[in-house]
Amino acid sequence: MIESFLVTSRETLEASLVVGIVLAYLNKTNNQNYKKTVYYGIAFGILASIFSAVVFTVFAGGFEGRAEEIFEGTTMLIGAFLLTTMILWMMQQRHIAREIEGKVEKHLMGSQPLFSHLGIFMLIFIAIIREGIETVIFLNAINYASGINFIGGTLGIIAAIIAGYLFFISTRKINLKKLFNISSILLILFAAGLVAHGIHEFEEAGAVSGIVSPLFDINPILNEKGLVGSFLKGLFGYNGNPSLLEVIGYVSYLGLIFYLYKRIGSSGAAVKA
Predict the structure, then answer these.
(1) If we measure between CA atoms, which residue out of 114, 123, 115 comes closest to residue 23?
(2) How many C-beta atoms surround the C-beta of residue 24 within 10 A?
(3) Which residue from 26, 82, 173, 264 has the least number of CB within 10 angstroms?
(4) Count: domains in the chain
């Protein structure tokens, strides 16, 4: 449930932030006549996301046996990669509102109203469809790893919409930096679990060797199918009897993220100096 909540809330929050900034800027610049264009962008973006979910599900359902294991492993690794790019992008954002407002201003300054409406529509549409497609991939990766929780996913969407609304339309007192920092830590661990689980699927398919399999077995102490073990497996990719290759993948991913995080932090400090 928690992993579904994290993914949908994070993705929906990013999209809702873009929509909220655009609507707030249109209000501030007295361009309310463009609001319908924003709403059209939201509607078509959601429809396109649903369509992509249907296509992905139909496509994925055509695999069996070894091909299915390879496809699931590939989906998990792609999900981990997209999660990583999303986390690193959010770590680098210092002026997200200013950046989006600049894009809206550029579209509003177009010589033809039609192109201004089209530019704003595409800005919203791309924001929605991008997060929608990523969510489809993430949730399918979660489904392969531990199963999707509909309630958790729905609550994540609702929470993100409320947070975006409160931040940009009402009080603006929500500390997004802390919110993103906390969710980033959890999502990094979740992405590391996807990497390890993706490697496991490739091992099951015989595409790669686990080198030493299993490297150890602590299931008698903390069974991955037990209450606590299944929770840790779903959220952090816990495996009570992993192969050496899975452990290498998990640790290497965390090491890479830590390195990139330090690089981003040092570059940010250099800019401030």
Answers:
(1) 123
(2) 18
(3) 173
(4) 1
